[in-house]
Amino acid sequence: MITVLTGAGLSTAAGIPDFRGPDGVWTRDPSRARLLELDVFVGERAAREEGWRDWAAHPAWSARPAEAHRALARLVEAGLCRDVLTQNIDGLHQAAATPDDAVVEMHGALATTSCLDCGFGCPTRDVIDRLVVEPDPRCPYCGGILKPDVVYFGEALRSADLRRASRAARTCDTFVAIGTTLQVYPVAALAGEALAAGASLVIVNASPTSWDRDASLVIRDPIEEAVPALVEERLG
């Protein structure tokens, strides 16, 4: 059984820039990362307004799955992969026909928004549609701060997702990390959990990662070529 972990590099072919790559969002402008710090978002109205403008313009709204997304969906459909763990918030795995129950969105999802006070939830598009008249969106029920259901820096990952991801890492035969630098913990630690349980580690990423020396296979080829080739090899 294969467990897959995907990062921002998977979606670059779909038109969504990564963060830490040579042309990444934070590489070009390190100050942008500050907008994803929870204490900044909560404490500074100007940062919230700027952050919401960024979310409104995010390319995920118009992106379509790339061939690598579709290849991974075929792997799941064939019964060779039970869990697709993703650090991405764009929903492209589901758009590529990977079933919802096979995808674990470790860092949340842009599609929905919640109130930080009362927990009210709604589609993020509904919030974006009101930004012209409400640039600092507030909960219609309690007046609390609305925030996309994306995990910000300083915010804990959902415990249920962590438990499922850990189980998926510990029970697979092969752990495949695609398009991730494996720098952000606790998700990056999943590679170590898989190795400790006896799985082989495959890394598909354009740049080196700290786990490369432990991998049985490291692929630097473009993800759009490498992932479909890996999947076809597994499908026989």
UniProtKB/TrEMBL annotation:
One example of the protein's molecular function in GO is: histone deacetylase activity, NAD-dependent
The protein's superkingdom reads Bacteria
Recorded source organism is Demequina mangrovi
Residue limits of the Deacetylase sirtuin-type domain?
A: 1-236
Protein name as annotated: protein acetyllysine N-acetyltransferase
* Alphabetical list of PROSITE patterns matching this protein: SIRTUIN (PS50305)
Q: What is its EC number?
A: 2.3.1.286
In this protein, the active site sits at 107 (proton acceptor)
Q: InterPro entries of this UniProt entry? A: DHS-like_NAD/FAD-binding_dom, NAD-dep_sirtuin_deacylases, Sirtuin, Sirtuin_cat_small_dom_sf, Ssirtuin_cat_dom
Taxonomic path = Bacteria, Bacillati, Actinomycetota, Actinomycetes, Micrococcales
UniProt keyword Metal-binding present: yes
List the keywords (alphabetical). Metal-binding, NAD, Transferase, Zinc
| Pfam families to which the protein is assigned, alphabetical | SIR2
Detail which positions bind Zn(2+). Answer: 115, 118, 139, 142
